[in-house]
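Private note to self, pasted from the team thread so I don't lose it. Backbone tokens:
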């Protein structure tokens, strides 16, 4: 199990001279990136303090973002993200096609396994849940659509990393370190090599006791992992589908989605 070192997310350090600097854009992006990690929202004073900027310049930025629909203010004057950015991501043509092609297979695998399933991608230092289908039974566990999980806390993230090409993986890890200021798990290379050998990840959830995550990669046209299909597996009395069968159905669904989006399975 990776030894995860938690650290408070930092603002990206300034290094050297910036070319074509756009201070207003940078301030707006700083605000959005800060609020991503604050589901309960922040007051303008808290935003100002955490970003080390004056209240007046932060207030102008908050008003602009609110007027454009990216953030909303609660009755107690706390600012939080809206779903606008998630909607924009879903409307991006490659993402829209991925979700459209994947959903029929996800519904099928949820019916076959009597478990919920979700589709996740890596975005920056997080895994973002792009699509999700509930279990058809009255009992189930699911991950909320649109939610984010830190990359090093998600089976989906490890599966994608393990099946990315080396250059892509190094860029992803460099971005994670840059955004979080954290150190990579000491046994990360061994962990990813193990996943790559077996072709999927199976391990207890990093977040919830009693859940075992089964996660399979979905590949792009280059044979590099684009996203992953995951079942948070629970044992309950409303199904007699074994864990082995769940893995088989999930593996086949991942292969079908790969084919549907024009992806290519890597050579063994």
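Design output:
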């Amino acid at each position: 199990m990776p030894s995860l070192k938690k650290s408070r997310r930092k603002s990206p350090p300034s290094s050297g001279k910036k070319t074509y600097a756009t201070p207003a854009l940078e301030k707006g992006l700083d605000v959005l990136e800060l609020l991503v990690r604050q589901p309960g929202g922040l007051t303008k004073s808290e935003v100002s303090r955490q970003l080390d900027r004056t209240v007046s310049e932060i207030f102008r930025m908050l008003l602009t973002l609110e007027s454009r629909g990216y953030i909303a203010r609660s009755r107690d004057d706390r600012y939080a993200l809206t779903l606008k950015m998630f909607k924009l991501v879903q409307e991006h043509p490659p993402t829209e096609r991925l979700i459209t092609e994947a959903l029929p297979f996800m519904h099928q695998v949820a019916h076959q396994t009597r478990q919920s399933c979700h589709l996740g991608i890596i975005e920056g230092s997080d895994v973002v849940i792009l699509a999700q289908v509930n279990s058809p039974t009255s009992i189930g566990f699911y991950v909320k659509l649109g939610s984010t999980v830190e990359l090093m806390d998600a089976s989906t993230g490890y599966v994608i990393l393990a099946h990315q090409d080396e250059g892509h993986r190094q860029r992803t890890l460099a971005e994670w370190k840059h955004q979080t200021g954290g150190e990579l798990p000491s046994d990360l290379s061994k962990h990813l090599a193990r996943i790559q050998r077996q072709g999927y990840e199976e391990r207890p959830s990093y977040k919830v006791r009693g859940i075992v995550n089964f996660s399979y990669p979905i590949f792009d046209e280059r044979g590099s992992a684009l996203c992953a299909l995951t079942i948070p597996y629970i044992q309950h009395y409303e199904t007699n589908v074994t864990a082995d069968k769940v893995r088989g159905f999930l593996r086949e669904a991942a292969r079908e989605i790969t084919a549907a989006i024009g992806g290519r399975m890597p050579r063994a």
